[in-house]
Design a protein that fits this description.
Length: about 290
């Protein structure tokens, strides 16, 4: 029988791939990822069955995927993005499942084992655009900077993705990553997901023990929100609250109507705090 424990941070990619498979199999799916169940594999299924509150994590992951999809396509069509750099890409299959222009360059960056697993699982499948897989440990600063510099020399207007990455970083690690990205002039936009300290505490209460055992604790939730990135050269261009987007997409938690009502009854400051508990953020570089 497959081991159901999360052994390392790469195992969370199987968990998220299963969420994408579950959405894809709905008759009213917002996206279709025909590769997701294959990528999740038996191990992804086993992990899901043992995680506390697995089902409760479905709607925010689907919302995050949908909003990332929307903002990626908009950046390509409206802003002329020619390169997408997907940091800690995991088992994301956007180059194979999305309608992307052939002239686009898509670069997946992740640890060697997870990239090898994905490459093998998708062998024979043709991506819609130019695709490159780069095996790299993003915690190694010198290698990271060299990679960013190489990509920057070959691109003109790049969008960087870090979907599901920042939550695992310490504050100083997030700052160092932000500064290294800003050092590359071609990196114009950075698309991230971000949680508040209150939401981080809730997530750790639910999944903290499983992630701690895998040496992949959730850590990053700056109290100042997106202002955290300003000293490193990035400012908020757009914020999409997960709760609001879930309501729009009809993928939300039970009782969401009550939370929305309570939010409307609260004062402006509390309402904004509630709206920003978690969300998807498009950052733009400060020149």
């Amino acid at each position: 029988m497959t081991d159901a424990k999360i052994e390392n941070v790469s195992d969370t990619a199987r968990w998220v791939a299963l969420y994408r498979a579950m959405e894809s199999e709905r008759p009213d799916a917002h996206f279709r990822d025909p590769h997701a169940r294959r990528l999740a594999g038996e191990r992804g299924e086993q992990i899901a069955r043992t995680l506390p509150g697995f089902q409760s994590g479905l709607w925010p992951m689907v919302v995050r995927t949908c909003v990332f999809d929307e903002l990626i396509l908009r950046a390509i069509e409206r802003d002329g993005v020619d390169t997408v750099v997907n940091l800690a890409a995991g088992l994301d299959a956007r180059p194979w499942r999305m309608k992307l222009p052939a002239a686009l360059t898509w670069i997946d960056v992740d640890l060697p084992a997870i990239l090898a697993y994905k490459t093998n699982a998708l062998a024979g499948e043709k991506p819609a655009c130019g695709f490159e897989a780069v095996a790299a440990d993003l915690t190694e600063a010198s290698a990271r900077r060299a990679l960013f510099a190489r990509i920057g020399q070959a691109s003109r207007r790049a969008l960087v993705l870090s979907e599901g990455l920042l939550a695992y970083l310490a504050d100083d690690e997030a700052t160092a990553l932000a500064r290294d990205l800003h050092a590359v002039p071609a990196f114009r936009w950075w698309l991230i997901d971000l949680v508040s300290p209150k939401l981080l505490a809730m997530l750790n209460k639910r999944w903290g023990a499983s992630l701690e055992a895998a040496r992949a604790p959730l850590r990053f939730a700056p109290p100042e929100g997106t202002r955290f990135f300003e000293p490193a050269g990035w400012r908020e261009a757009e914020f999409r609250g997960t709760l609001d987007e879930g309501w729009r997409l009809k993928r939300h938690m039970r009782g969401a109507w009550l939370l929305r009502l309570l939010g409307r009854l609260a004062g402006p400051e509390k309402r904004e705090e509630f709206r920003r508990m978690g969300g998807i953020v498009l950052l733009e570089r400060i020149d």
